[in-house]
C-alpha cells in the first residue's frame, strides 16, 4: 500500500509539473483569437483543451482547477455562438481565468489549500455578467428536465443537469451556482439531504437559493437546512417555478 501511495504521489507531482505548459497552451489559444481566420475552429480547440484539463485535474486531485475549468467552459459555450467575433474586452475576460489557474497552482504547490480568494473571484466574474447565470438542476425525469430547462433558458439561465445527488454535491462544494433545483427523490443522496449538506458547508453555495421538487403536498420547511422553496410537481409546476425564479431575479437586481 505504501508503494501504491508513493506512486500516486509521484504521478500527481509529475502532473502538477506539467500544468504551466498546459495553462500556456490555453492562453495562446485565447490570444490567438485576436488574429485567427478560423475563430470557430480556435474556439472548438480551446474548449477541448479546457475540457481535457478539467478531466485530468479531477483525476489527480486538483478540484480547484476543475472548478475554474467548469466556469471557463460555460463562458466559452455562452459566447461562442455562430458569428462570434472576439473583441479586446472578451479576450481580457478569458485571460482572467488563466490568472486564476496560476494562482491555484501557486496555492497547490505551497500545500496551503486555501482557495477562498479564487472562489470569490469566480463568483465576482459571474455576478459581473461576464458569465451567464447558472442553475444546477438535479432531476431524474427527462420530460420534467426538458420543461424546466426551457423555462429557465427563457429567464436567461444556463442549466446544468445531473440526476445523481452524490455527483451534484461534489460540484456544489466547489463550483458556484446562482440557483439549485433538485427533485426530492434522486440517486444516492436525496434532495433534502443534498440541500442540507450544501447549506451547512463553507462552500460557495451555502447561501445560494434552493428549491426542492416533490410530488407530495405535505412537505414543509421546518429546519434552517431545508430548501428555500418547495415546488409541487403538478399541472402548475412551470408556472410556480418561473414565478419564484422571476421574483429572485428582481430581488438580486
TrEMBL record:
Cited InterPro entries: CheY-like_superfamily (IPR011006), HPT_dom_sf (IPR036641), Sig_transdc_His_kin_Hpt_dom (IPR008207), Sig_transdc_resp-reg_receiver (IPR001789)
GO MF entries: protein kinase activity
Residues recorded as bearing Phosphohistidine in the entry: 51
UniProt-listed GO biological process terms: phosphorelay signal transduction system
Stretches assigned to the HPt domain: 4-115
Pfam families reported in the protein's UniProt record: Hpt
Residue ranges occupied by any Response regulatory domain in the UniProt entry: 134-248
Keywords: Phosphoprotein, Two-component regulatory system
Keyword Lipoprotein: no
Entry keyword Transmembrane: no
Protein name: Hpt domain-containing protein
Species for this entry: Candidatus Reidiella endopervernicosa
